[in-house]
Structures are given as C-alpha cells and as structure tokens.
Amino acid sequence: MTETQSAAAPQPSAGNLHVLYLLHLLAPFTMWLLAIVAVVVGMASRDSVRGTWLDSHYSWLQRTFWWGILWVAISWVITGILFVTIVGILLIWVPWVVLFVWYLYRVIRGWLLLNDGKAAPS
Fold first, then answer.
1. Nearest to 39 by CA among 78, 65, 5
2. Which of 28, 22, 21 is CA-nearest to residue 96?
3. Rounded mean pLDDT of the chain?
C-alpha cells in the first residue's frame, strides 16, 4: 500500500525551470537583463519545489547569476585597466569572452542535468 501511495504522490513540474534556463541562456545576449527577470521569477516560484531535487536547480541558477554579477564587476575593472594602458586595448575582449563562456557552460550543464532528471551540483 505504501508503494501505491508513493506512486500517487504528485511530482513537482520542471516546466518553470525550463523557462528559467532558457532566460538564463539568452541573458548574455540581452546584457543580462533576462537573467534578472529569471532570478526574480525563480525566487517567486521556488517555494513550490522546496525539499525536492528541483530545488537544487534554483540554487544553481541563483549562484550562477550572483557569481556572474561578481565577474561582470571584475571584468569592468580589468577592462578599465586595459583601456588605460594603450597596449591593453587589444585585449579588452578577453575577460568578457571568458565570462560569456563560463556563464553559458553553467547554464547548459544545469539544463542537461535537469533533462536527465538529476539534481544540480551543490
């Protein structure tokens, strides 16, 4: 009887998370505005999945966003330093490309884990 009850227990839907991952995937192309929207929506809708494996994906996306904000600030500082040194102007693009690749890696990795039904790394 316990197997029947556990089988009948409703599983939380991952549909909202797919939308959040899509917003995060598109965020670098919108100057991270969609990431802000995704984080706000994620904070508002996270309570429905507390205690499930889906909760780890909300944490993953929020950590990706906040670390991304930190790296944006660091990239601005590096860009300013490189701009001041005339020779560095040729290298201004490097921190932004690193940030772009890192951010997309985190989003794609999390989305693939979600599709496989696995929790995101903590």
1. 65
2. 28
3. 90
